[in-house]
Structure formats: C-alpha cells, structure tokens
Amino acid sequence: MRLRIRLETVNDANEFVKIASATDGRVVICDGNGLCVNGKSVLGALHALEFNTLWCESDKNIFAEIRKFVVE
After folding, report:
1. Residue 12 has what pLDDT?
2. What is the model's pLDDT at position 58?
3. CATH architecture of 2-69
4. pLDDT for the residue 69
5. What's CA 22's distance to the chain center, in Å?
6. What are the extents of the domains in the chain?
7. Is-contact 39 16, C-beta < 8 A?
8. pLDDT tens-place string over residues 1-36
C-alpha cells in the first residue's frame, strides 16, 4: 500500500510512529526521489519532516489508522 501523507510537526511525527509501531509488517516513509526511512522510528519520522513530498508505504492496509495524515 502506498499513500501520500503529511507530517508537519514533531507531534505529528510522534503520533505517526506510535500508530506505525502498533502495525505488523513494514512501514516506511519515502520522499518523491526514493529516499526512505523507517516509519516506526522516531528519528526516521523526524528526518522525514524535511522531505518535500511524503509517501507512506506499508505491507498492510493501514489507511484507517493513518487517515488523519493522508493527503487526498
């Protein structure tokens, strides 16, 4: 699954990591150029705040859990 997301603050990053960490399987945050960080890592999510465009890629459908961060 691949969804475009928005993380604007440190609180957003922390909340996203908390949700991702409770999910089985792989969750990564990627930019538009293929750079990816671990979505279950606070350091990874904080680094992703610097990306221009954010994509969440996961092994499972986690749309319901991360809905507030999804850009539609």
Report:
1. 97
2. 97
3. 2-Layer Sandwich (3.30)
4. 98
5. 13
6. 2-69
7. yes
8. 999 999 999 999 999 999 999 999 999 999 989 999
CA distances, 35 to each of 10, 11, 15, 43, 69 (Å): 20, 22, 21, 14, 19
Determine the Cα–Cα distance for residues 29 and 58; give it in Å rounded to an integer.
9
Which runs of E-coded beta strand occur in the chain? 2-5, 27-30, 36-38, 54-58
Residues 6+ apart with CB under 8 A from 61: 1
- Is 72's pLDDT higher than 90? no
Q: Are 46 and 54 in contact (CB under 8 A)?
A: no
61-62-68-72 Cα dihedral, nearest 10 degrees = -20
